[in-house]
Amino acid sequence: MLLCIANVLTTEELDRLTSQLASAAFQDGKATAGWHARLVKHNQQLDSADPIASETKEIVMAALQRNQLFQMAVRPKQIRPPLFSRYEPGMSYGNHVDNALMGTPLMRSDISMTLFLSRVDDYAGGELILETPQGEEAIKLEAGSMVVYPSSTLHRVDPVIKGVRLVAVTWIQSLVRDAYDREILFDLDTARQAIFNQQGKTPEFDLISKAHANLLRKWAEL
């Protein structure tokens, strides 16, 4: 499931992140790419040794933890520490698929996330291009918004033409491994919350809640 979520960061969080990253130390993004992705990765990433790295990661992680829509759609079991990527004019990231296994100890990447930090009017180009069964889909969101999509998706970042594209990216292992199962749970959760908001705790709400809980019980990997 591909899902765009607006207003993940508050105005204050976004301003703090962009202010800190403006003077931070960035390094060649190839340092965190797999052997084949390294051939097409042309960007910069925040140096993990930079003093602001810990605080910037904490801001993003806190935003993900409190975002109800993200939690419903992704069902996170483990979230990788976010990476902050910077694209100047001419930089891009060619077609690639994210590594299936990441980190120490290893985690499986089920869902990929891009959180946009630059305002859309501040740069040209730099669209995230996802190859879907319906064709290519270009994603370029307002600052503070994010997109989540299956890590199995072939994708790229088109060249930046002018300005600077700044994003945070990370990967999630879900409690529910199968993407179709996660979508069913998301739809059921969305429907039951709509019923509750409109009608309160009705017999229909209880029945959908029962189905949702039992499917989650069946599919969750703890």
Task: Describe the protein's architecture and organization.
The mean pLDDT is 96. Strands 1, 2, 4, 5, 6, 10, 14 and 17 form an eight-stranded antiparallel beta sheet that branches. A five-stranded antiparallel beta sheet has the order 3-7-15-12-13, with no helix packed on it. A two-stranded antiparallel sheet has the order 8-9. Helix content is 32%, strand content 32%. The protein contains five helices and 17 strands. By secondary structure, the protein is an alpha+beta fold. Helix 4 runs antiparallel to helix 5 (203-219). A hairpin with a 2-residue loop joins strand 12 and strand 13. The chain has two domains: 3-174, Jelly Rolls; 179-219.
User: Do you know the CATH architecture of the largest domain?
Assistant: Sandwich
Task: Please summarize the sheet with the most strands.
Answer: 8 strands, antiparallel
Percentage of residues in helical conformation: 25-40%
Structural class: alpha+beta
CATH class of the largest domain: Mainly Beta
Average of pLDDT: 96
Alpha-carbon distance between the two ends: 22 Å
Low-pLDDT windows of residues: none
Number of helices: 5
> H/E series, N to C?
EHEEEHHEEEEEEEEEEEEEHH
| Superfamily (CATH H level) name of the largest domain | q2cbj1_9rhob like domain
CATH topology of the largest domain: Jelly Rolls
Q: How big is the Rg?
A: 18 Å
Number of strand segments: 17
Tertiary shape: globular
